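Journal club prep — side note

Before the paper discussion, L.F. wants everyone to see what a predicted structure for a comparable chain looks like in token form. Sequence:
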Amino acid sequence: MKGEETNEMKHFLGFLGLCRRAGKIVCGTPLVCLALQKTPKPPLVLYASGSSAATKKKIESKCAFYGVTVRELPISPADLAAALGKGSNLAAVAITDPGFADAMQKKLATMKDS
């Protein structure tokens, strides 16, 4: 990663931490899968690119089934856990607030355009 991309990712992960402090996030693959089954559904699911193939497939297929947007983050599960103040690896998170989800998607789009 270039230095600018790293700063953009740090800013994005900081915003993700803000979502956690606001209580608008569900952490962990099992809890994300449960959240997808409930109403209202989370508008956005994010998973770490370093997650196992089985986890990626599970998250992507559940999100496709329930019609929820899913995005892969170019970070490891350990980095995702660290950004959210969790002690162990974290493969997936769901953003439960539509406003935060829209802001996250805009930030991700800006990062890819750079």
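L.F.'s comment for the group: Residues 1-5 have pLDDT under 50 and may be disordered. Keep this in mind when we get to the figures.
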